[in-house]
Structures are given as structure tokens and as C-alpha cells.
Amino acid sequence: MAIADGRYETSFTDEQRERYSRHIALKEVGAEGQKKLLNAKTLIIGAGGLGSPAALYLAAAGVGTIGIADADEVDLSNLQRQILHTVNDLGKPKAQSAKETMNAINPDVTVNAYHTFVTSENIMELIEGYDFILDCTDNFSAKFLINDACVIAKKPFCHAGLLGLKGQLMTYVPKQGPCYRCVFKAPPPEEALPVRERAGIIGAVAGVIGSLQAMEAVKYIIGCGELLTGYLLTYDALKTEFRKVKLPTDTHGCAVCGDHPTITKCGER
């Protein structure tokens, strides 16, 4: 489950021992787990409501290299939930704002900011070199693109989605469970979707789900606990209720991870 741990020869500085002392004190993490975090590379696609808490916690945890990709600029309506950004960042590219905030929390971390749309033309290059991908996007076309790219490239990733006072997430690890397309098949028609600018969301819901995404990445990196592989975790904030639903793997019918895939490169349908 964990990433390969033979890439580093890491000795902690005095500052690192203090900074990560609460991790090192945990038997599930310890010094070796912290070394794995410092050696790991994660990519966050989306620096908004989900990407904000995920990025903050991964930076604070000492994940050594974090990529963050987002094509948008910070606007005032973002600040209700996108806690990477402040009023001083209005008009700034979100990826750059995210980089500055993450490095302010932890200068130990290398942050690669990608101020770009993630497309079928560039996604394979973007995910190359990263150990774990976080889908923190807010539209279905991006989610299917990320899924297909990660399956094709054999990259583990954590999907999450939000709507109003509800959220969901699942984790895909190659050959260990279903992918996003096994479950949801294809994007819904555009006319069935709420207009993004008018879709409501409570910021704290994004905080809950984005933090869980960060935890999935940490568990994968250090190799502890059980991932949401083969499960969909749903959260209803009004009821304060979590549900963990077992997901089937569509080995015969899935267009990207099934036995006879019809999607073999990004952008295919």
C-alpha cells in the first residue's frame, strides 16, 4: 500500500524533530513514517474548497513535494470556504496563492504551482512523478479525466465531491478496487447539473471532506490503516452522519479499468 521507501537517506534536523514530534510520537507513524512523508510527492488538482484543507494539512504534515494545479484566480466569493486564500490574494492565481500559504506554514515543503487548466493534453505529464493524486475539482468532466488518467498511468488517487450540505469520497489504488468510472459510468448531462456559481455549499463541509482526503494520502504514503479502496464514504452534515458503502468492481463493463477497456488514452469516450 505504501510508496517505495528506498529513495531517501533522511536525517532529521533539530527543527524537524520539533516540528514533527507529534507524528514521531505515534507508533503508526514514527520516525520512518515521517521520513516517508518527507520523501513523498502528492499532486492536488483544484485549489478551492476541497483542495484548501487538503493542501494545508499535507503541507503541515511535511509531505516533501506537493503539486497544486488550478487555472482560476481568487475572488471574494471563494473566501467563504477556500481557506488557502485571504483578501490579500484577491485577483491572484489560486495556485500561486496556495503555494505562498503552504510555504508560510511549512518552508520544509517544496510546492510546485501549476496555473493551468488540467486537460487531456497535459494531465499525463502533470501526474507523472507524483505518488498520489487528490481530485479536489468541482466538475464531472475533470473528475472523469483524472480517474481515466490515473487508471491508465497506474496512479493511486482520492476522489471527493460536494453538494450543499453533503460530501463523498473514495480512493482508488491500481488492482485493489473499483475506479470512479466503475461506479458512475459517465458524466451526467450538462442540463441536469446546477449552475456552479449558484450551487450552495457550507464551507465546513468542504473542510471535513478535504481533510479526509489528506488523511487518505497520509495513510497511503506511510502504509498504515485501511484506505477507502472499494468503498464510498458519504457525509450528511445536517444529520451528522457518515455512511461507508461497499462498491463493486466492474471488471467486465468498466471502460477504463475493466478486462476489455475501450478508453486507453485520455480524452477518449
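[next item in queue]
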Amino acid sequence: MKEKSLAEKLIDNGIFIITSDINDKSAHNLIFALLDYSASNPEKEIKLYVSSGSVDYLNVFAIYDVVKSLPNPVSTYSIGGISDMSLVFPVLGNKGKRYALKNTLFYFSEVVGILGEGQQTDIEILAKDTMRTRIAFESILSEATGKSVEQIHKDLINEVKLTAEQAKEYGLIDEVM
């Protein structure tokens, strides 16, 4: 019998890792693994370990929506640094189950669209898409933290940086470990 890899052993125990290396393939693999685990263990806790920077917003929203749709209790453990759209990941945990190690840093950063060359209509479409993304991102953080959308928007524009203790006060996490 083939010995399981470390990744397989972690998943068997409901432990999933989210890093900045999320691309379409790794996001889909994570989603499939979460769905498979949940189907077999709908009442067991899912533990998400997060250390992530800038990632594609489509993958962020896909992971967010899938995790929020699962019946499992979910806990999150922020480690290292969390920035940009990845700020969505720590708030995936159920209230009371959102943790961070004491030296974790949280970096707010404004949602950015990439405006390249193109016709005016192409640029307008991209601007509207970026606006929709920003509104969705700010709404998720607002709902999770209890802060107003306006406050979230201001903090993203000002690129606020928080320690784990400050993130707890802010409402991004519940406990510092």
C-alpha cells in the first residue's frame, strides 16, 4: 500500500492550506478537496491555514463562495502575512474560530484593475469590472468585521497595516495565538 503524502494526510484531518500560489489550477484543486472532504465529513471542522498575498480575485471569490456554502464548521489560522484580496480568507472562519499567530501582519490594499492599451469601451468595461470587484470585496470585509463599507474603503485606500492584535480589535480575527 502506497504511503500518503503530507498534503493527503493534512486533508484527511480537515487541514487545508491557502497561499499566494493560488492560480486557476490550485484554486480548483483546493475547491475539489474541500467539497470532497465536506461530502464525506459534513459535521467535521475544516481548518484553513492562510498565508497569502495578492491573488486573482476570481479565485478568491470562488474559494470564498464554496467555503461559505459548506455545512462544516470552519476555523481559520492566519500565519505570516495576509494582504490585498487575501484578506477575505481569514474571515472565512466561523465567528469565534478566526485565529492568527501573534506575529502575523495584515495589509490592506486597494483593489486594482490592470488598464492596458485598448479601445475606450474596453477600458470602460475593465473599470466597471474593477468597481464591482471592489464593492464585493469591501462588502465581504464589512459584513465579517462589523465595520462600515466606507471605513473598509478608506482603510484600503490608505493601505492600513495591522498587527495580529490590531486585526483582532478591527474584527478580522477573533483570537491571537
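[queue empty]
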